[in-house]
Amino acid sequence: MGATLTGHAQATKVDGVAVVVGKNIVLDSDIAKFKQELELRSEGKVTISDCEMLEELMQQKLLAHHAVVDSITVSQGEIDGRVNRSLSFFENEYGSPEKAAAAYGFANTQELRRELERVQKENVLIEKEQQKVTEKLDVTPEEVRVYFNGLRDKDELPEIPAEVELAQIVLYAEATKEENDRVVNKLNDIKQQILNGASFDLKAIIHSEDPSSAQNKGNLGIITKETPFIKEFKEAVFNLEEGQMSEPIKTIFGYHLIKLHKIRGKGREVSHILMQPEISDEKLKKTKEEIEKIVAEVKEGKITFEEAAKKYSEDKDTRLNGGLLMNPYTGEPTFELTRMPPDLFGRISELKEGQLSDVFYDETRGGEKMYKVIFMKKRTDTHKADIIDDYVRMQKFALEKKKEEELEKWTKDKIGETYIKMANAYKSCTFKKNWKKENK
């Protein structure tokens, strides 16, 4: 757990201060908001008292305070990366950063961004201090064995979920050169009509194939260099002068005609008209036939799946490693079977190790059309942890346990040397650690 959004910045003026840890404070509203987030994330399965929540927050503030004491630094790049990911998440969740700002009680996206920067800086400090405290720890094979046996003797061995390793071959159904030229020429014609006096707004409503902005006359609002947007699109925006229109710009979504309305500080108010080249049924049919021929070669043993992926697949992210899919959340090639997206789960759940899925059609959010086939490279069923088969996982669990114990020891030591002032309302709490600094 790290710092979180606490709502409007003015909250500090009206909130009660629950506790001061070093130079950091925990507000009464922080406790309420963290509790609410925890219960929402667990879908009501986890409940926690105010006192338990406060202890969690004091732990974070203690780490953040001593990170500063230990001269741990945080670069602006580290903060910006996290803030941009948060803004991207909010855009998906609420429809736009502006709507997210309003939902959290901020007057505008600038206020939201400033608060996110504060939150993410504290989160990085917390993580780096934890790493500093535990970075030299390791576990020996004997420690892993003792840890495993301890769990086994108490009948507490974890259940390892069913996991899979998957590989894919992807062939894109791309528009012909003639079709791309047709779309570019159409946009150039629209641009000329606008230069001759036609309304950009009206042309966007009539022609744009971006449903989210067409109804808004193509307007995308204000874009900054930090706004999560397609790279080619942003580069074009920041090369325009006020009132200027771009040439047709190609992105994964199609071709865009972009107009820069106003330069507002570091932001650019822009509109666009999006047109997507059409892919004929004949092209789709041909692409499907091509991938089916590749599948036939694999099934006949003329080529391995890995070789076929390297030779034929057009997916740049997986082609070079034989089509192997990587889990974006863990960076590992394994996926928990029951946590996969429902559409993919439905295609591979019945496959045995070494089997291929049927060839199927897929489409990206940007409208790219493709045919795929999935290979079940490896599969393990749900089972109780085993010291041999699951050694790497048990090694990781044992190390995490050791780190937790080291962090507990560090916390007890640092509480004694850190200024802590607690509001009277929380002095009746029973804590696991001696936050009230009572003689024991």
What does this 3D model show about the protein?
- The chain is α+β, with helices and mostly antiparallel strands and 440 residues long.
- It contains 15 helices and 13 strands.
- The chain has helices spanning 11-14, 28-41, 50-69, 76-94, 97-103, 109-134, 141-153, 177-195, 200-207, 211-214, 231-237, 281-299, 305-312, 342-348, 391-417; strands at 17-21, 24-27, 159-160, 163-173, 219-223, 249-251, 254-264, 267-275, 334-336, 360-363, 369-380, 383-384, 420-422.
- A 4-stranded antiparallel beta sheet has the order 9-4-11-10, with helices on one face. It has a 4-stranded antiparallel beta sheet with strand order 5-8-7-6, with helices on both faces.
In which order are the strands of the major sheet placed? 9-4-11-10
Form type: flat
Measured distance between first and last alpha carbons? 29 Å
Report the portion of residues in β strands.
Answer: 15-25%
Order of helices and strands: HEEHHHHHHEEHHHEHEEEHHEHEEEHE
Q: Largest sheet at a glance?
A: 4 strands, antiparallel
Report Rg. Answer: 28 Å
Strands, count: 13
**In which range does the helix fraction lie?**
40-55%
In short:
The protein contains 15 helices and 13 strands. It is α+β, with helices and mostly antiparallel strands and 440 residues long.
Strand and helix layout:
Layout: H1 11-14, E1 17-21, E2 24-27, H2 28-41, H3 50-69, H4 76-94, H5 97-103, H6 109-134, H7 141-153, E3 159-160, E4 163-173, H8 177-195, H9 200-207, H10 211-214, E5 219-223, H11 231-237, E6 249-251, E7 254-264, E8 267-275, H12 281-299, H13 305-312, E9 334-336, H14 342-348, E10 360-363, E11 369-380, E12 383-384, H15 391-417, E13 420-422
Antiparallel strand pairs: 1-2, 1-13, 3-12, 4-9, 4-11, 5-8, 6-7, 7-8, 10-11
Helix pairs in contact: 2-3, 3-6, 4-5, 4-6, 7-15
